[in-house]
Each structure stands twice: as structure tokens, then as C-alpha cells.
Design goal:
Chain lengths: 75, 145
């Protein structure tokens, strides 16, 4: 099943990662480290777990969807 | 109460009229407050020829629905319509529409203003501008002043 990790907007362009499935990670922060090969995380990066805003040290489990993106600019 | 994300051009006044004609509150409303956001042809002192709006479909829809629920819990609203465009947008084209209906003006005016700010801060949309020197992601929204 794995953990589905998505990147959006400038992060997607900068890291050249759209979405990827990883076997496991304990936290959202660990999912960042695995998928980006330990890339430095900009201070303003936001994270969502299963479509809700979350924290980088929040626990994740198999089947979760984790998303990383910059500050939102809609409207 | 409806939140829509659309890729095709937005015709805000038609959308309001069409939506209002299908609502069930009939003659109970005494106020309609609307906000229409339109693309400017400048930002940060640079000319902008187009904009691409990206979003996180499932989460964006969830947050628009959530904002409507929260507005409804705070004010006595008869109905709310939010429509937000994604994809490629040209200057002078509407980006988003918020319309709030209530029996009295204060509820719809306050809710509409609150919804704009909350949407800008919470709903996962991202703007990428096309300028003469290439494409640039917008790093943050203006403060609206």
C-alpha cells in the first residue's frame, strides 16, 4: 500500500518531484527526507496529511497521503 | 451552499443570477454581498501577461466546503456560492467569485469579507505569473490594501 507523497507548485518545480509512493515513513518530516533525498526544507513549506494541514512531526501510516507545498496564493 | 472549482472562463454575474434563480430561499433574502477577484496585468511592479493557477484538487474542494460550513456557523446565511478558476487566466478575467445571501446586510457583508481572507490564507491554490522574463511562482498574496 505504501505512503503516497505529493508536491505542488514551486516545490514540485524545484525538486522535480510530482508524486511518489514510498514504502514507509514514521512522520511527515521523514517522508520529506526520503522523497527529497534529505533536501533542505524551506522554512515556509506547508504539509498536509490526508487533505488536512498537519505538522512535520505528525505520525503517518500505511495508505496515508502526504503533501508538501509552499504558502497558498489563491483568490 | 456550493463551492466549485472550474477550468473554463468564469462569468460571475451570470453565475450569480443562475444560482440565485435555483435557490430555495425565495423572497427571504434582503441582502446579497459579492466579491469578484480579477486578474491584474501587473504585480510587484512587473507586467503580467497571463497566470496559471494550480491547485490540490481534493484538498482544495474540501477547504472551500469547509469555509462555507464555518461561515454558515458564524452568520445567519441563506446561501453561499464560491467559484474559483484554475488553469490559464488572462488579465481582466475573473479568478474567483464569492456570493453570500442573507436576510439582513451585516451577515452577508461580514461573511463575504471573512470568506475572501480565509480562502486566500487556507485554500491550496498557487499562482504562477507569466512575465516578459519568464514564469514566476507568486510567493505570497498581497495584503489586500
Amino acid at each position: 500500500m505504501g505512503i503516497h507523497v505529493k508536491f505542488f507548485a514551486s516545490l514540485k518545480d524545484k525538486l522535480k518531484i510530482d508524486d511518489v509512493t514510498i514504502e514507509q515513513a514514521k512522520t511527515a518530516g521523514e517522508a520529506w527526507d526520503i522523497t527529497t533525498n534529505n533536501a533542505e526544507r524551506p522554512d515556509n513549506v506547508l504539509v498536509a496529511i490526508n487533505l488536512e494541514y498537519a505538522q512535520f512531526d505528525d505520525l503517518i501510516k500505511q495508505g496515508d497521503e502526504v503533501a508538501f507545498f509552499p504558502p497558498v496564493t489563491g483568490g | 451552499m456550493t463551492a466549485e472549482i472550474i477550468e473554463q472562463p468564469l462569468e460571475p454575474w451570470q453565475a450569480i443570477s443562475k444560482y440565485q434563480s435555483k435557490t430555495t430561499f425565495n423572497k427571504q433574502f434582503g441582502a446579497t454581498a459579492t466579491f469578484i477577484g480579477t486578474m491584474r496585468d501587473f504585480n510587484d511592479n512587473a507586467d503580467v501577461s497571463a497566470m496559471t493557477l494550480e491547485h490540490y484538487p481534493a484538498m482544495t474542494q474540501r477547504y472551500l466546503d469547509k469555509l462555507i460550513d464555518e461561515a454558515k456557523a458564524q452568520w445567519p446565511l441563506l446561501d453561499v456560492l464560491i467559484i474559483h478558476r484554475v488553469g490559464i487566466i488572462k488579465p481582466a478575467e475573473p479568478i474567483m467569485l464569492i456570493a453570500c445571501w442573507s436576510a439582513h446586510r451585516r451577515a452577508s457583508l461580514d461573511a463575504c469579507s471573512w470568506l475572501i481572507e480565509e480562502l486566500k490564507h487556507r485554500a491550496p491554490f498557487w499562482k504562477k505569473e507569466t512575465r516578459i522574463d519568464g514564469e514566476h511562482w507568486v510567493e505570497k498574496n498581497t495584503d489586500g490594501l
